[in-house]
């Protein structure tokens, strides 16, 4: 079976409100990042892929299955929605048994698969805990368990690291990267760091349109030659902020060290630096010309 997701000229909306406009993407095995501001349409795209909302027009093909084969598509996709809060009063193992049965996994396979996956996400010792007693990070890992119980070819995770502490965030990213060795994993997020450390390819969605689709390095390169560090005296900072796109700043008392994106002729005190993926992303989001 073809291990690719092909999306062509996809249009999706809610009632009269159109949210996705002519989205086209080709996604292959490994980790793929979908980056965009809040409200850009990431969750809508994820839901359309899983078949939870209808598409207005366009084509979807998931590993050889077209969007008309909804039931079959669901059987090869695992999905962790943004809000994952199921069966709070059930114990971890009870919930998995229930979910596995709903997915029509036979009892013997379910038992061995549950063991395997709980171990993979390091929750094997917590199987007797009630779901409401799990921490945010544990709950997210349980979310992955329910999504991969039926061993899908595709795993879709929507904003999975929001609210996690740094250690749990790294653990979660590594887990996804391991899973991506033999699956298509789509990670939707507005956190640039999540993409930077795990995804070789990404798309940026802005206002329901794809504004970038390509290798992660390429987005970083887009800000090359336009990224500067500038030490700005406190007395000038207000005016400076009005003129330039500041991507970060650090206060050193007498002066503020800023990082800016700027395409005009630099001033003497501008020190050119190598861009990060965040600079590249912001360069795309803002239409950066000369000064603001
Ligand atoms: N059920 C719905 N009915 C009507 N409009 C909706 C619905 N769900 C989402 N929208 C709208 O669609 C647009 C895209 O929302 P979506 O949740 O897909 O964005 P997102 O990129 O996932 O954002 P976030 O990171 O905040 O979840 C927003 O304007 C939102 O208000």
UniProtKB/TrEMBL annotation:
InterPro entries from the UniProt entry: AAA+_ATPase, ABC_transporter-like_ATP-bd, ABC_transporter-like_CS, P-loop_NTPase
A Pfam family: ABC_tran
Highest taxon listed in the record's lineage: Bacteria
Keywords tagged on the record: ATP-binding, Nucleotide-binding, Transport
Organism: Tepidimicrobium xylanilyticum
Protein name per the record: ABC-2 type transport system ATP-binding protein
PANTHER family registered for this protein in UniProt: ABC TRANSPORTER, ATP-BINDING PROTEIN
Limits of the ABC transporter domain: 5-232
Spans traversing the lipid bilayer: none
SUPFAM superfamilies: P-loop containing nucleoside triphosphate hydrolases (SSF52540)
Any one Gene Ontology molecular-function term assigned to this protein's record: ATP binding
SMART domains, per the entry: AAA (SM00382)
Family classification: Belongs to the ABC transporter superfamily.
């Amino acid at each position: 079976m073809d291990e690719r997701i092909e999306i062509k000229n996809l249009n999706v909306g809610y009632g009269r409100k159109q949210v996705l406009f002519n989205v086209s993407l080709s996604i292959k095995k490994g980790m793929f990042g979908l980056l965009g501001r809040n409200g850009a349409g990431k969750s809508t795209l994820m839901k359309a892929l899983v078949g939870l909302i209808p598409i207005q027009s366009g084509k979807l093909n998931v590993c050889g299955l077209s969007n008309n084969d909804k039931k079959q598509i669901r059987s090869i996709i695992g999905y962790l929605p943004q809000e994952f809060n199921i069966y709070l009063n059930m114990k971890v193992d009870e919930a998995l048994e229930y979910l596995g049965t709903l997915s029509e996994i036979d009892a013997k396979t379910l038992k061995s698969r549950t063991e395997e996956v709980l171990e993979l996400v390091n929750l094997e010792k917590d199987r007797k805990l009630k779901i409401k007693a799990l921490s945010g990070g544990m709950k997210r890992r349980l979310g992955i368990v329910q999504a991969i119980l039926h061993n899908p070819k595709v795993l879709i995770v929507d904003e999975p690291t929001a609210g996690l502490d740094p250690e749990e965030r790294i653990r979660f990213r590594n887990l996804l990267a391991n899973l991506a060795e033999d699956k298509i994993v789509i990670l939707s997020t507005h956190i640039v760091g999540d993409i930077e450390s795990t995804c070789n390819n990404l798309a940026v969605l802005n206002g329901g349109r794809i504004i970038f689709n390509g290798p992660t390095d390429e987005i970083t390169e887009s800000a090359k030659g336009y990224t500067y560090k500038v030490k700005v005296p406190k007395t000038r900072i207000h005016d400076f902020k009005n003129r330039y796109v500041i991507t970060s700043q650090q206060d050193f008392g007498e002066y503020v060290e800023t990082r800016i994106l700027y395409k005009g002729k630099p001033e003497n005190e501008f020190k050119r630096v190598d861009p990060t993926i965040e600079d590249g992303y912001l360069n795309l989001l803002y239409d950066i010309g000369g000064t603001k």
